[in-house]
Structures are given as structure tokens and as C-alpha cells.
Amino acid sequence: MPDIEHIQYVKTPIAEVYRALTTADGLAEIWTRELAFTAQEGAINEFSFGDEAPTRMEITELVPDKRMVWHCVDSDPEWIGTDVSFELAQSNGRTSVVLRHTGWRELTEFYRSCNYNWAMFLLSLKQYCEDGTGIPFQVRKF
């Protein structure tokens, strides 16, 4: 099975990066402004992208300043049953963010598109944490 895996380095304390990933305000600036999000294990959160049906992700693991895991319960059929994890570590004044999207059944055109867009998600996270402005779906041009 193919998996997506990226790393990003952010010149921001780990607590600020974690807050950006685990609050509705942060995710609205990083990913999409159309969301309903609660940072709690077992919570099912919704993310909307234009005319598409909402993506629904259950938080299956939440470890402050270290890790968050989402399990996709509803979205594009290729996403359902997959997991997205964010692992954080801090060293030398930088926070590393490892994003993994695992459980893909096959390598498809949609997989390739998502691989690219997860990299852009991490760029948006970096810009938001370092400069105060991310690149959510509603303003992106890529």
C-alpha cells in the first residue's frame, strides 16, 4: 500500500504549532475556513472544500505537543478508512512536523494530487506559524 509522508520544519515553539493544528482558528487559516472542529479524542470533525461533500475525520489520538491522529470516516471513497497523523518534535529552536496519510489502497491520480496538497498544507502551516497568515483552500491559487 502506498502512504504519503512529508516533513516540515517550523521556526516556532512546539506549543504554537500544536495549537495551530488542534484549534478551529488554526485549521481555518491552514486548511479550510469551512469547518467544525473540536480537539478531543472521539470527536468527528468536518472540513469542507467548495462544492464537495464534507470530509469527516475522527480524532483517534491526541497527545499535547506531540501527536494527533485522524481517521477518515466520510469523504472521497479513496480516503475513507485512511489515517492522517501529525507528529511534532522540537530541536534547536525549530519544530518538526511529520505528516503521514496512511492506508491508501492503491496509487491513483487522486493519491498523487493529495500528496501534493498535503505538502502545500505543511507550507501553509509554516507560513501561518511563522508569519501569521496561512494559505487556506478559499484563498489558494494552486
TrEMBL record:
* Chain ranges of the Activator of Hsp90 ATPase homologue 1/2-like C-terminal domain: 11-129
UniProt cross-references to Pfam families, sorted A to Z: AHSA1 (PF08327)
**Family note:** Belongs to the AHA1 family.
Q: What is this protein called?
A: Uncharacterized conserved protein YndB, AHSA1/START domain
Q: Which organism is it from?
A: Pseudoxanthomonas wuyuanensis
